[in-house]
Amino acid sequence: MESQKTFTKRIGGYLHKMTPVTDASGKLLHYVTKPLMVELKPRDVMQIIIGSTILALPVAYTEEAWKLGEELPLLNVGFLSMISLVFIALFVFFNFYRFNIKGHVFNYIKRVIATYLISIVVVAVLLTIIQRCPWETDFMLAIKRIIVVAFPASMSATISDVLK
After folding, report:
1. How far, in Å, CA of 144 to CA of 54, rounded?
2. How far is residue 72's CA from residue 105's CA, in Å, rounded to a whole number?
């Protein structure tokens, strides 16, 4: 059995990598299909929301996270945010785009930024609901607490986005 050049085809609204498999005479036997998860679809957004909630809930309810947001200097919180983005970018690259980056750079960047921003919004809503984001009195403390809790939330969001 021999396989020929692969191509991309949209099946049921999703991109798939199609690999034709032929016999020695060149007769097509079948296609091997593999989903290409390079587009950010509504289903992926829901998985990111649920995934970020998985770790945002237990971390957001701990006093240690609130105190860490109070005590960490802004520079350290900024580094924590950058580390989150780097981890997301690396994980997404190696799980979705490593062999398919050509022609999908914009989708890659969109997925990384969307994962982080959705995690930030989920954490902000949760911390606001439990009254641990003092938006009116100390805006910077609210932002710092969100970033601290968003670190694990964005990691779980990234992991859940891989599940299909």
Report:
1. 20
2. 34
> How many residues are listed for the chain in this entry?
164
Strands (E), 23-70: 28-35
Tens of pLDDT, residues 78-105: 999 999 999 999 999 998 888 888 888 9
- Whether 39 contacts 146, CB under 8 Å: no
Residues with pLDDT less than 50, the chain: 1-3
- 85 is written with which tokens? 């983005």
Bridge partners of 17, per DSSP, are: 8, 34
Q: Write the single-letter amino acid at 105.
A: V
CA atoms within a 13 Å half-sphere pointing along the CA-CB vector of 157: 34
pTM of structure: 0.85
Strand partners, 31: 20
Report whether 109 contacts 39 (CB < 8 A): no
Q: How far is CA 107 from the centre of its chain?
A: 12
Residue 37 amino acid letter = M
